[in-house]
Amino acid sequence: MEESLKQLRKPTIQVMNFISLLMILLSTTQYFYSLTMETTPIYLIITTLIEIIVILLGLLQLFEKNTANPLKKAKRYLIVGILTSYFTYLSFYNLYFFMAEENKYDLTRFWIVGFVFLFICSCAHICSLLLMGNTPHWFKGDKTMWIIILKIIACTFYVQKIIEYIMIPNVAESHFLIILSMFMIFVSNLLVSQYYLLYGRVLTDVNKISKDKKRDKHDN
């Protein structure tokens, strides 16, 4: 259990945080040219601020003291890990749009479509993991079929990225960032799956310890 908690806490989250911070710094270099805060779209400012908050949450985990409730800690690590994974992707994605704004391209519609697909497909991936773990009492229907449907929905993100790559203007010869962001979402989904697996191990260990304590208490 302790090893699973340790892996949930570090180091992949901090590595992703570093990558996200690097992308944010590269985005801010556009302000050394013609881009200003006044001309920066509000959606880029808001999502960048959220990215910074997520980075801070990941760094704070390094200095966290031991608590008596490992399951509560694991849940928090899982949430931070999921946020870190997807917002690291978003930092890659936003870099392209910072560059577009500096070069006087208005790509707001592309960003909105990309963000909506990110939200829907990431939620579908997370829900498929939750269904694979356990079945909620309110759930009805064929669980396997729903997992497949959710996986298919999650994979539509890659179709959207291919279409986006074809349609979006090649800003400052940086079209490769769209391909790179496609790779990043694959990495993000992989990490989210790993974090959920680690959380499942902690949950299993906690339940086992709880059952052992109840059995010992009953025997006494």
UniProtKB/TrEMBL annotation:
InterPro entries referenced in this protein's UniProt entry, alphabetically: DUF5079
UniProtKB keywords: Membrane, Transmembrane, Transmembrane helix
TM helices/strands, residue ranges: 12-34, 40-63, 75-98, 110-132, 144-163, 175-198
Protein name: DUF5079 family protein
Classification of source organism: Bacteria, Bacillati, Bacillota, Bacilli, Bacillales
